[in-house]
Amino acid sequence: MATTETDPLETQSVFSPAMRRYALSVLVVVYTFNFIDRQILSILLEPIKQDLGLSDTALGMLTGFAFALFYATLGIPIARLADRGNRRNLIAIALTVWSAMTAVSGLAQNFWHLLIARIGVGVGEAGCSPPAHSMIADYFPSENRATALGIYALGIPFGILFGFIAGGWLNEFFGWRVAFFVVGVPGLLLAILVRFSLREPPRGMAEGRTAAEAQPGVLETFRFLWTKKSFRHMAIGGGLTAFVGYGIVTWVPSFLIRSYGMGTGDAGTYLGLILGIPGGIGIVLGGYLADRFGARDQRWYLWIVTVALLISVPISFGIYLSDTATASLLFLILPILLGNFYQATTFSQAQGLVPLRMRAVAAAVLLFILNIIGLGAGPQMVGIVSDLLQPTYGDESLRYALLILGLVNIWAAYHYFIAGRYLAQDLEKDN
Description:
The structure is a single chain. With 431 residues, the protein is an all-alpha fold. 81% of the residues lie in helices and 1% in strands. The protein has a single domain, classed as MFS general substrate transporter like domains (Growth Hormone, Chain: A, Up-down Bundle). It has helices at 8-14, 17-43, 45-52, 56-63, 65-82, 87-105, 111-125, 129-139, 142-152, 155-174, 176-184, 186-197, 218-226, 229-260, 264-294, 300-321, 325-339, 342-352, 359-393, 397-406, 408-428; strands at residues 3-5, 209-211. Mean pLDDT is 86; it is low at 1-13.
């Protein structure tokens, strides 16, 4: 893909370091709302289950494929728009849609109403990360990109932190319907801020390049990525890591409520703090260590994830086999931290493997794979396995379904190891 040089002094005068930092900060807040609205359902599963009389399999559908199928699939055409249009405006529109649909979720009277609302949230959220990743790649050069994307990914633990704490206590005081409304409405105001305060960066600004006018198609981008062995294994490894992560985030609140008798307020507070603080540290630390060790040996951009996942597996047994909620929560801290190492470096390397006008679509392709395997299949599979084990283990069936889930990280670690072996040669190829 042909590129031309731009004047770096000119772009720096327009996009100062302070403006870049502001843009990244706003995008972090947007991504925080993305995950508040996405994951608040997790802390509300038990009251919704009791109110609407739903099975774990149905709950897994609401938290998994009902959201992920539309979120992942629509992300690709939206990303194609982002690669040739205004990315800031797309994010503002997407934020408006998913915030409105989150608020509407509180009006649901049955499974089908809630299913339609969750599909609407997924449709809106599809327009967030692909254009945001592309903008960040244009704001920050390759040597700082994993760190910048790691900071952006802080929206995940921040969103879970606020969503779990707010959702848990709002449910206790006002009910689950009010919780949806309270977290959904502020996003509409944030959309206005995004539209009128962010500036669209020129494509290739961070590298001092300008993208060619021609834009490759989705299939061309997918074929280009699939020729790179590092991407294939990285995408599968990321999907399997997300499979475990989304399963934990979705079902551990219900596990604590069922197995230890916790209320939604306490469960939301403790889990919010663990998923938010150690989870956030893991994302940033993973990006930092990847940049540091990867600068010496590019294989370590991905091998750092392999090491983190393998350490987390034996510790995860303590989460689900502990006799008390306190011990379970303490065991949860390190696997949450290590399980987030993959976030920043996976998306950073995907951006580095493709030409400028493939970047948003490349992010969408990677998100599609990660979300179909992780967000779609993870919560759904835990719900199915829990229902299958329920005749034998009763309310403890969820404990053993989650225990089985954690073993998938061994498989994920293998793919990151193989991806690291091919990364250097794939980055050196003309892209």
